[in-house]
Amino acid sequence: MSSDQASSRYSMAFLPLGGPDDGVLGWLVIRDMHGHVPVRAFAARDEAEATRLVERAGADLRGSVVEFEQAWDIGPDGRDDRVLHAAMRALEAAQAEDDEGEEVAPDDPRVEVFPDPVEVFVADQPWLGRVLHPLVSIDLGALDPAVLGPGARDLPVPARGLLLSPVEREGGLLGGHLPAPPDEWSAVNWLAFRIEDDGRWRLLGDRSVFEIETVGDDVPAALTAFYADAEADLAASRERWRVHGVLASGDFGDPTRPRAGSEGGFPAVERLGGDTPNGNWVVEPPPAAVVLEVPDAGAPVLRLADGRPFRFVAATPGYPWRDHGADAILLFVEPETRTALLTFDWT
User: Fold this and answer.
1) Nearest 5°: phi and psi at 140?
2) 41, 55, 178, 204: which one has the fewest Cβ atoms less than 10 Å from its Cβ?
3) For residue range 78-97, what is the model confidence (pLDDT) as tens digits?
4) Is residue 124 helix, strand or coil?
5) Distance CA 124, CA 322 (A)
6) Which has the closest alpha carbon to 13: 137, 160, 145, 170?
7) Exposed, middle or buried by CB within 10 Å (0-12, 13-18, 19+), for 25?
8) Measured between alpha carbons, how far apart are the two ends of the chain, in Å?
């Protein structure tokens, strides 16, 4: 994407913030990403008008900045737009509390728990199934369009969003054994993937971010034991799901049974969509190909180096599924380039 493409300067979102009293279903709001400033808003009275606005804006964002500004009448007088002021008042009221997204149950048709690694990773990276445990697969095509924005049309069908639990973390963060990142897609506590045409995931960074992939056949005994324990934990969790139909912590005596008091289970996804959660995941810088902005107020923002923004898709804890799991596994997707980012929050 060139620097004069409109999507490098502007973003759009449809905000369903209206109601029957004001005759408005919601607003299409256009923001200048240089400062996250809203510059125009357009009211939609019904779903058909909302769809037309979103499709038109999505197409125009692929054109030049100048053409986009002309098409949407963006200029120095935009701040005085009364429709914009009305939309912003509605937005402020709706965001009086953070949008914590949606909790998704394990039987929801949009998700699959414990997907087969063979089905979700590319065939020429079979080792990914050893170092990363797939906990949940999310059907990105079934999500509310507001989650991924207009770029969702660039994703393949089917397209998966994966919540993966890395085995390694003992004694530090994933990738912390390396003296420096080996490439632009690798970083401590971050993983980057490309969603391929068949929906499978390909790791973009070097496999050396996993310590076990750097030692050949001479795997230290402690690392071997750690991987064996992780596999046993996951196998017991799968068995609890298979036999009892519940995602729950394991009993201390028999981990294939749900622990007393946890029979009600936990959700497959704790947070689907909504605002990007804050946390200590912002401490470690992302891969060099990615920019992380952490404002004093508001949610963190992730972008590719060329300006295209990532969308926060989902977050869920890893520890109920397996011992030593993260406090939160966070998934971000940039749909135009089919790039997925995972990072992890730890206490």
Assistant:
1) -65, -30
2) 55
3) 555 666 766 666 555 554 45
4) coil
5) 27
6) 145
7) buried
8) 38
